Amino acid sequence: MGAQQRVFKAKINSTKSLRKIFKAMELIAASRIQKAIGRVQAASPYANALTRAVSAVATQSNVDHTLTTEPENAQRAAVVVIGPDRGFAGAYSANVIREAEELVRMLGEDGKQVSLYTVGRKAETYYTFRERELARAWTGFSEAPEAAHAREIGEQLVEAFHTPVEDGGVDEIYLVYTRFISSIAREPEYRRLIPLEVVEAEDDSSVPEVRTEPTAPSFEQDQVFPLYEFEPSAEEVLDALLPRYIDSRILAALLNASAAEQAARQQAMNTAVDNADELIKTYTRLANTARQAEITQELTEIVGGADALAASGGE
């Protein structure tokens, strides 16, 4: 019985140690959520202003730009999967990968080849473990993405879009990420990044809206833009605006994913702390039961010994 008590006490101590780790990770994630939400909100005005600017140029110029023209026969699509660098976030990573796999399946049914890009070690590990080729992988900044990271990804994607399909280029580009709704709600989703279909974003929207249907660019019909004169030309203005617009959309997706990751980690660690408390209660109860059984056995042995002595003395 003493051995059982030692086993249960060791389990209790190890569970208490794990609980401290889980609690610390929960508090760290809780503190980072507010910073992540603040970054999402800070990026919104710039993204919305770019959306309005691109919308104004496109509606008033009738320019056929390569980034806004629907390909006649799309053959190859790039899918960018934005996941976390670290685990301990519950089903966060699995959900975004499941969404990406669903998109890959749909594109395959349309007869399109898929070129995979990943952000975050979890997404990269998932595909490399299954020996699936990756066009490019970025890691190390899922929790605190910056504009430079979005610019690097955007340049790589635009370069692939401008490359002929025969040389490994793509006709379409999709983003798969987790949209942050609140600290307890998040939703994995995919959006087509290129060709662009820009619609005017709401003032409180953290991610400018882009339609996923394969249609030409469309805009809000009731939106009234000022009259602009473009110098040197509307096409050159679009050349300057669209790369920045793409970078802002990628950054918005990265920031949403970062906030969703911290919220998922906080929720997962909170659940882990609760489970650890339950385990500690269970092990404590089992240890007390083993101790009671040990005491009962010792008393039984003492009483039995005393009865044996009394019987032998009476004889």
TrEMBL record:
Mode of membrane association: Peripheral membrane protein
Cited InterPro entries: ATP_synth_F1_ATPase_gsu, ATP_synth_F1_gsu, ATP_synth_F1_gsu_CS
Keywords for this protein: ATP synthesis, Cell membrane, CF(1), Hydrogen ion transport, Ion transport, Membrane, Transport
SUPFAM superfamilies associated with the record: ATP synthase (F1-ATPase), gamma subunit
Pfam families associated with the record: ATP-synt
Tree of life domain: Bacteria
Compartments where located: Cell membrane; Membrane
Oligomeric form and interacting partners: F-type ATPases have 2 components, CF(1) - the catalytic core - and CF(0) - the membrane proton channel. CF(1) has five subunits: alpha(3), beta(3), gamma(1), delta(1), epsilon(1). CF(0) has three main subunits: a, b and c.
Family: Belongs to the ATPase gamma chain family.
Known function: Produces ATP from ADP in the presence of a proton gradient across the membrane. The gamma chain is believed to be important in regulating ATPase activity and the flow of protons through the CF(0) complex.
Protein name (Swiss-Prot/TrEMBL): ATP synthase gamma chain
Lineage: Bacteria, Bacillati, Actinomycetota, Actinomycetes, Micrococcales
Gene name as annotated: atpG
